Each structure stands twice: as C-alpha cells, then as structure tokens.
Amino acid sequence: MYHLVRKVHLFSSVIILAFLGMYFISGYIMVHRPWFANVSPPPTTRKAALQGVAELSTEPLAAAAQEQLRLPGLIQFPQKQPPGMTRFWVNHPGTMVRVDIPDGSSEVLVTTQRTGWVGVLIMLHKVRGYGGSFLFDAVALFSDIAGVSMILFAFTGVYLWWKRVRNHRWGLLCLAVSGAYVLGMMSYFSFAR
Questions:
Q1: What is the CA radius of gyration of the chain?
Q2: Residue-level pLDDT at 180
Q3: Which among 121, 124, 115 is positioned nearest to 44, based on CA atoms?
Q4: Cβ–Cβ < 8 Å for 97, 71
Q5: 135: three-class secondary structure by DSSP
Q6: Are 101 and 61 in contact (CB under 8 A)?
Q7: Which one, 34, 125, 145, 181, has least CB within 10 Å?
Q8: Does the global pTM surpass 0.90?
C-alpha cells in the first residue's frame, strides 16, 4: 500500500507541476500586461445586420448573432449590461470579439481584437467550464485533472508523513492550524458583507 500511495503522490505532483507552470506563465503575463501591450495589432470595427432577432432575449440573441456572424468560440457576458444594448464577447484562442446590439435594432457593431499568443495564454488562465472549442474543453479537463491531483497529493502526502514519522505532534499542529485557517477564510468570505 505504501508504495502505491508513493506512486500516486509522485504522479499527482507531476500533473500539478505542469498545471502550475501554465498558470504561472499566464498569470505573469496578466500581472505584467503593459510589458506585452505592443504584441497585438489594434482592434478593427465593422457593422453588420442580423436577421430575425428583434424579439430574442439576451442569451438566444447572442447565440443567433454568433451563428449569423460566423464567430467561432465561447460566448461570455459582462456582469452588467450597458443601458440600451446587449453586449457580449466571443472568445476564441488568439481572438476576442465584442458584439454590441442596440435594443430593438438588427444592426450590430462587431469589434475584433487579435490577441496573439499573449491573449491565448491569458484566455487559458480564464477558462470556465466546458462547451467551447476543443482547446477550451482540453484546458477545462486539464484543470479538473489538476484539481483532483491536488487533492490526491495532499492526502497521499499526509499518509506518507504519518507512516514515516514517529512523532506526529508538530505535523498535527500544522494540519490543525492550516485547517483552521481554511475554515476561517471560507467562513469570512461566506458571511462577510
């Protein structure tokens, strides 16, 4: 059993290392975005007309617009819609497209920003869930595998420590303090206003 747990601990650490490496690189670019600002060309804007969308609500409107404008990628909405219009983004690796549709109008404004490799890495950092292109789904799957690996890494590490060390006092103290910290932070963010 000990050798099996050791192998699980080792392989989960390799998966976590790859995930953290990707997250570090994309996070570093996000933190130091001005250093990479000149990599992308300026955005382009065009007008287009949509057919049969006058009575659609926000999500069906975005889906119809994406299909009619032939925009591949994942639709994302802002947290708050601007007054008098529907706005959404269609994110595709290397490209971000903002679509603005005034209320009651079939004419839309399409702003396309080519982001290059910088945008691809930032987009990898922000992927949420499945349902996009193959790349989005692959990154989401990798994130799920990395999350499971982190849990396995933690539990197998505790198991290996428990089996190897005779005096568990300091380790138990560390586990208690870190567990209390996690519970405290979760409580704070759950109930703080």
A1: 23
A2: 94
A3: 115
A4: yes
A5: helix
A6: yes
A7: 34
A8: no
Inter-residue contact 29 to 122 (CB < 8 Å) = yes
3-state secondary structure of 57: coil
Cβ neighbours of residue 152 closer than 8 Å, sequence gap 6 or more: 8, 9, 12
Rounded CA gap, 88 and 81, in Å? 9
> In one letter, which amino acid is 83?
P
Question: What is the three-state SS of the chain?
Answer: CHHHHHHHHHHHHHHHHHHHHHHHHHHHHHHCHHHHHHHCCCCEEEEEECCCCCCCCHHHHHHHHHHHHCCCCEEECCCCCCCCEEEEEEEECCEEEEEEEECCCCEEEEEEEECHHHHHHHHHHHCCCCCCCHHHHHHHHHHHHHHHHHHHHHHHHHHHHHHHCCCCHHHHHHHHHHHHHHHHHHHHHHHCC
Q: pLDDT by residue (tens digit) across 151-188? A: 999 989 888 888 888 888 888 898 899 999 999 999 99
Query: For tokens 């996000």, what's the residue?
Result: 30
18 token code pair: 């790859």
Residues in Cβ contact with 99 at an 8 Å cutoff, skipping those fewer than 6 apart: 62, 65, 66, 69, 71, 87, 88, 89, 90, 108, 109, 110, 111
Q: Is residue 189 helix, strand or coil?
A: helix
